Amino acid sequence: MSDENPVLLHNFAKEKLSRGEPVYSMTVRLVRTIDIASIAYTAGFDTVYIDLEHSSFSLQDAGQICMACNHLGVTPLVRVPDLDPALIARVMDSGAMGIVVPGVASADEARAAVRAVKHAPLGERSLAGAAPQLHYRTFPAEQVVRELDQASMVIVMIESQAGLDAAEDIAAVEGVDVVLVGANDLSVELGVAGQVDHPKIHQAYLRVIAACKAGGKTVGIGGMGGRPDLIRQYLEMGAGYVSTGNDISFLAGAAAQKRQQFS
């Protein structure tokens, strides 16, 4: 007997996390062409994380990369500059499969992020009609809403003491998938700028890991691409999502390494 409601849209990163498998992400801040999606795919990344907070990318740039990722089975995530529902809706309508919201400091802000990404009843996002994630195929509106909301991801970032203090409440919010610890900004906030191996950062991770275990959420590791030893440690402790680094650092590092070969 065939399934009356077959899944039309897959978010492979979200599905891996649901199986308890780690997900590895490549941040994009420099390359504006769709080639970066193929590079990420060939390199074996699960997601491309397009950073609109720390880049000069346009919405069109982000949308083109999202579409290329979707065709390759690489989950496109977009970090927005702030919690702006109108911008979030436009990013999702451009093909993103998930939104990363920086600087979330309370459960109310986490709920607002969910409302911006999801349609009713969980959210308030307007239904745009034909969706690029579904390759502009036409389906009943109820089915489109179900597919988009089941596949979309909400990732909230804890980057401050206030966010850390609210970790348990944030991790309990329905609709949040990942609580991503932004170690760079958090280290600045805690007075240990850049010291991602500092005990304060370690304690922050312990708290978020405990909160996410209680709330049934995934812990994300951010700002530690240069410390694979720490990443492995936190994965063993229960984290699941890893932001490995960005295209600028990858290119600069590879270029420097290549030049050294001729010294």
Walk me through what this model shows:
- The protein has 263 residues and is of the alpha/beta class.
- It has a single domain, classed as TIM Barrel.
- The chain contains 12 helices and 8 strands.
- The chain is globular and about 55 Å long.
Query: Could you say which structural class the secondary elements and strand pairing correspond to?
Result: alpha/beta
Let me know the CATH homologous superfamily: Phosphoenolpyruvate-binding domains
Number of domains: 1
- Estimate what percentage of residues fall within beta strands: 15-25%
Mean pLDDT: 96
Described by strand count, sense and barrel closure, the largest sheet is: 8 strands, parallel, barrel
| H/I helix tally | 12
Question: Helices and strands, in N-to-C order?
Answer: HEHEHEHEHHEHHEHHEHEH
- Please state the second-level CATH architecture: Alpha-Beta Barrel
Task: State the helical fraction.
Answer: 40-55%
The name of the CATH topology is TIM Barrel
Key phrases:
16% strand, 8 strands, TIM Barrel, 12 helices, alpha/beta, 8-stranded parallel beta barrel, 263 residues, globular
Can you give me a brief rundown of this structure?
The chain has 263 residues and is α/β, with parallel strands linked by helices. The protein has helices at residues 12-18, 35-43, 59-72, 85-93, 107-117, 141-151, 161-165, 167-171, 183-189, 199-215, 228-236, 247-260, and strands spanning 23-28, 47-51, 75-79, 98-101, 153-158, 178-182, 218-222, 241-246.
